[in-house]
Amino acid sequence: MSEEMKVDVVIVGAGPAGSTTARFAAEAGANVLVLERRAEVGVPVRCGEFMPSVEEMKAMFPSYDGMADLFEVPSDLISMRLETTRIYSPKLTKYDLPFSGYTTDRDRLDQFFASQAIKAGAEIRTGQKVVGVKKGEVRTEDLTVKAKVIVGADGPLSMVAKSFGLPRSKDLCPAVTTQIEGDFEPICEMYFGTVAPGGYAWVIPKKGVANVGLGISTKFAKEPVGTYFEKFIKMKGLNAGKPEGKVVPMSMPSKRTVADGAIVVGDAAGQVMAVNGGGIPIARMAGRVAGKAVADHVIRGQPLSRYEEEWRRYLYKPLRTAARTKVLADLCFGSAWRTETAMKVLGPRRMNNLIRCKPIFP
Fold first, then answer.
1. 79 with 105: CB under 8 angstroms?
2. Mean pLDDT of the chain
3. In angstroms, rounded to a whole number, what is the distance separating the alpha carbons of residues 297 and 317?
4. DSSP H stretches of helix in 83-138
5. 1-5, 289-293, 318-322 — which is least confidently predicted?
C-alpha cells in the first residue's frame, strides 16, 4: 500500500531547476516536497561541467538582480578557473575568445543546490520514479502526493509538461560526455562542423582530468551520436571509456510554461541557451522566479501566471536571441565549406556576441 502525503508544492526532479525552485518556495513559507527518480542527486554526470562567472551572467542578463546569491559556490566546488574559450572551425582554424568561468564536479554541485533546498525546509526523496501525474496529484510506485501546485523540473521529456498539455521542445539534440584523465591546457575548447553536425564537440579541463563530449542535431547527422564521439576521440588522440548520454533542448523556450495547477521550469520549459546548450545558469535563475511565484500562489493567492510573466521579463530576450542565432547557424551546417566561411565572416567580435546570447549582426 502506497504512502500518502499532502503538501503545498510537489516538485518533480532535483536538478538545478528543481532544487532552486524548492529552496525559494520553502524560504517563502511553502511546504515543499521534491521527488527525484535517481538514487543519488546528480549521479550519473551528463554535463560539460562548465559554469560562467557571475560577471558573464550579469552581462548576458543585465535586468536580473541577485546573481551573486545564485552563483556563488564553496571554493571546493571550483575545479579550475578558465578565462578563454577556443573555438575551432572545420579546418581547425582557432579563434580565442575571452570568457570567464570555472569547471566543477556536477554531481557535487547538484548536491550543494539540493542541500540549500533542504536547509530552507524542503524535503527531497530520492529513488522516486514518477508514474502518474494529474491536477493536484503526483504518484510514484510507492507514494501518492496531493499538492496545490505541481512543478515539472523533470527535463526535456517532462512527464509533467505532457500531463498538463504544455509544449515540450521539438529540437532535442543527443549528447554524450565522459571524463578523461590527463593534464589539459586551461582553455575551454569547442569544435564545430562535420565533427559534430548541427552541434559541437568540447574539451573542458578540470584538475587532472577533462570533460570531453559531443552533441549533434538529428537534422544533420547521418550517424548516431556515439559514432561521432568515437571519431572525435580518435582525432584528439585520447582514450575514453563509455560516455553518458542525454538529450538537450536547442530551440526557443516553451510558448507556455503555466497550466491549471502546474508549471514547468529549466529544461522542461526549454529554458536553455540554444547556441551552446547551457542550462544550469538559466535553471537557477528561472528556479528562483518559480519558487517565489508558487509560494505566492499557495500562501497569498497570487496568480500562478506571474511565474511566466516574471521569467520572460528577465530571461526571454537573450534566450530568444540565442535560438534565432542557432537557426541561422543551422543554415551553414550542411557543409564544412559553409561553416568555415561563416566563421570567417563572423570573426572573433561577432563570435563573442554569439556565445553571450547577443545579436551577431546589428
1. yes
2. 93
3. 26
4. 106-120
5. 1-5
Residue with cell 581547425: 92
Question: Residue 138 and residue 160: Cα distance in Å, rounded?
Answer: 9
54, 62 contact by CB (below 8 A)? no
Tell me the sheet residues that pair with 130: 140
Residues 35-61 pLDDT 10s: 999 999 999 998 889 999 999 999 999
Helix H or strand E segment including 94: strand 94-103
Terminal C-alpha separation, the chain: 62
Helix or strand (DSSP H, E) at 159? helix 159-163
Q: Let me know: does 123 contact 19? Beta carbons within 8 Å.
A: no
Q: Is the peptide bond before 44 cis (omega within 30 degrees of 0)?
A: yes
pLDDT at 274: 82
All three cell numbers of 208: 587532472
Q: Is residue 332 pLDDT above 80, yes or no? A: no
Neighbouring CB atoms inside 10 A of 56's CB total 19
Distance of CA 211 to the CA centre of its chain: 16
Burial call 61-100: b when 16+ CB within 10 Å, e when fewer: beebeebeebbeeeeebbbbebeebbbbbbeeeebebebe
CATH 3.40.50.720 fits 3-355, yes or no: no
